Amino acid sequence: MAGSADFDLYRPSEEHDMLRESVRSLAEAKIAPFAAAVDEEARFPQEALDALVANDLHAVHVPEAYGGAGADALATVIVIEEVARVCASSSLIPAVNKLGSLPVILSGSEELKKKYLGPLAKGDAMFSYCLSEPDAGSDAAGMKTKAVRDGDYWVLNGVKRWITNAGVSEYYTVMAVTDPEKRSRGISAFVVEKGDEGVSFGAPEKKLGIKGSPTREVYLDNVRIPADRMIGAEGTGFATAMKTLDHTRITIAAQALGIAQGALDYAKGYVQERKQFGKPIGDFQGVQFMLADMAMKLEAARQLTYAAAARSERISAGGKGEDLTFFGAAAKCYASDAAMEITTDAVQLLGGYGYTRDYPVERMMRDAKITQIYEGTNQVQRIVMARNLPQ
């Protein structure tokens, strides 16, 4: 077969490249200037939310039928990646909006989609995801939160932990046990609103990183919601939760890519400026080899993540046999491990300066750590991969 310069098999489209450029310039102008203060003050990145909403980048995944941009999975990854490059906390806005709302997109009734996706697309509301509990982390099926039917209502009681953007989001996808005898097949999914009576929040967690993204417990105390707020059929909630994670683990990989890229970019500039022994430290082979390894790991992680995003998109369009469970887990696991290594090396390359808060790489190192933990620890990802090895 003859070669061709427009052989597009392994590169994003021109539209994707243009999207990256526009998100990058927006992130550098409107989000980066506040990143250090957001971390230092552990405050919500309101400037980032305002900028993302103004440019319709806060929830790009919402289908056009509900007023959204209808962006594909790779475009969503690129948005998250470019925001995370300057501020990991801010990248949780588009990422968690997708995580919280995807169960509604995948399994919700047409009425639920119209009711909840419209305000999300407009930027009037954010969406969080309530799966984990104090005693149900990796073993999510061991949850205790209950939903009991009462006429045309369900009454929810329980505690959800580690809920990203809790208290800021208007809407919450909540998994609850509707039939305790059936374990994972007895779990159902519901939309709970912040304003529902009986919903309250714990104090913000004091975290190592992503300090600008509030993480709080969500308390459900006799929360009575209409029966039509159930997402999908009774007993299908856990299956919906797992299907959601197959798609959204790729957004965590995207965060990891962005954090790692930001750290590599900074370190690359630093070693050209910093002089020791009469020349830039970037001239030393030991430093060059570190940068080469960092760039190589990052590129491998990016290719794996983009390939997983393409699979996610094909499955969303009705495709079959894409091994998404394996590829989503692999992308998340590999990219987050790479991000931890790359940010740690960036701190090393800056030496003592890297260890201070005057430079951004220590923040990036702290932020990278959570990508190895949330949406399934990397130990759990390896279990998932082993059970779903590609044929």
From TrEMBL:
Residues 13-124 form the Acyl-CoA dehydrogenase/oxidase N-terminal domain. Keywords: FAD, Flavoprotein, Oxidoreductase. The keyword Transcription regulation does not apply. PROSITE patterns: ACYL_COA_DH_1 (PS00072), ACYL_COA_DH_2 (PS00073). Residues 235-389 form the Acyl-CoA dehydrogenase/oxidase C-terminal domain. Its cofactor is FAD. InterPro entries: Acyl-CoA_DH_CS (IPR006089), Acyl-CoA_Oxase/DH_mid-dom (IPR006091), Acyl-CoA_Oxase/DH_mid-dom_sf (IPR046373), AcylCo_DH-like_C (IPR036250), AcylCo_DH/oxidase_C (IPR009075), AcylCoA_DH/ox_N (IPR013786), AcylCoA_DH/ox_N_sf (IPR037069), AcylCoA_DH/oxidase_NM_dom_sf (IPR009100). The keyword Flavoprotein applies. Coiled coil: none annotated. Residues 129-223 form the Acyl-CoA oxidase/dehydrogenase middle domain. Belongs to the acyl-CoA dehydrogenase family. This is Acyl-CoA dehydrogenase.
